[in-house]
Amino acid sequence: MELIRNLSDLDTRYHDCVATIGNFDGFHLGHQAVLKQLRTCADDLNLPVTVMVFEPQPLEFFDPDKAPSRLTRWREKYQLLRDHGVDRMICIRFNAQLAALSAEDFVVNLLLGKVGVRHLLIGDDFRFGQGRKGDYDLLCNLSHKHGFKVERSKTFLIDNKRVSSSRIRTALETGDLDQAARLLGRRYSISGRVAHGNKQGRALGFPTANIELRRMKTALKGIFVANVVLQDQPAQPSIAYIGTKPTLGGTRSILEAHLFDFTGDLYGQYIKVEFLKKLRDDKKFDSFEILREQIALDAKMAREYFLENE
Question: What gap in Å lies between CA 263 and CA 230, rounded to an integer?
């Protein structure tokens, strides 16, 4: 999959494509259905499949404090789109200049002038341009004027409800990991590179692989039964934690995973943590010793989960 990150890199070589636009956060079954629909069109026209995303996501630009938690990190999104047959990913920096672009200029100057869209597939709720004034009706009017085709994506339902990123966030926030997996088509996971921590897990008797979440707000918080997927190795039964470690005076959110019965150096490796079951919420304990005892109980419950589900 080709990645374009600067509008200045878009020239006539990239013209003529079928495209869709969106956040694709989580890359759930609804997103996958959109890509299947787009691929069918691309094959009919013998054109490449192009996905346009924004970074940061528009809501994160306009109101970062109220923006929803992300389901996928940028690299995960890239990998998921690549693995599902997207030919070209255009990642546009969302800034004040782009936000001020009128809806018509967005279509004429960007979608047609830069990307060269021949067929555009969008969702029912797609809005664009300054003040979100652009919609499907405007696109239809402009398509007749400028000679491209616009199509609505088909709504993907589970249990007679639309599959959406917000629905998945709700499932994760309430600890319903099975429901989240149904909507995603896979177990929810977070990937990242293992970094050096402060070795507090080792002091507790449970050394952990640490993934810095940096600015990522997560829908998950607490203690979980998990699988850790390493490169070219079977999944490792684990227990995972997402939180700020309040008992130890932490302030930044972090993902830590303790791999049962594992020996080896994971520092610098890129790993994936798949969440299987929530054990409990995060909380502040009155002492380091009480925290150690609780973690031992958490680990015991996680091991029992794997024994019961062999």
Answer: 13
- Which residues on neighbouring strands pair with residue 144, listed in sequence order? none
pLDDT in tens, 158-211: 999 999 999 999 999 999 999 999 999 999 999 999 987 665 555 566 788 999
Q: Which two tokens stand for residue 22?
A: 């969106």
Residues in the chain: 310
Note whether residue 171 is domain-resident: no
Three-state secondary-structure class, residue 295: helix
Q: Is residue 14 part of a domain?
A: yes
147 CB neighbour count, 10 Å cutoff: 9
DSSP string, 52-99: EEEES-HHHHH-TTTSPPPSS-HHHHHHHHHHTT-SEEEEEE--HHHH
pLDDT digits (tens, 9 = 90+) for 80-91: 999 999 999 999
**Domain range enclosing 304:** 188-308
Alpha helices in 162-284 (DSSP H): 165-173, 177-184, 200-203
Q: Measured between alpha carbons, how far is 176 from 170 in angstroms, rounded to an integer?
A: 8
First-to-last alpha carbon distance for the chain, in angstroms, is: 37
We report the CATH number of the domain holding residue 27 as 3.40.50.620
Rounded to whole angstroms, what are the CA distances from 192 to 8, 101, 139?
A: 30, 35, 38
CATH of the domain at 233: 2.40.30.30
List pLDDT tens digits, range 265-280: 888 899 999 999 999 9
Region at 129 (left for phi over 0; alpha for psi -120 to 50; beta for the rest):
left
Kindly give the residue spans of alpha helices, DSSP state H, lying in the chain. 29-45, 58-62, 74-83, 96-99, 103-105, 136-146, 165-173, 177-184, 200-203, 288-308
Task: Decide: 296 and 279 in contact? Cβ < 8 Å.
Answer: no
Average pLDDT over the chain, rounded to an integer:
90
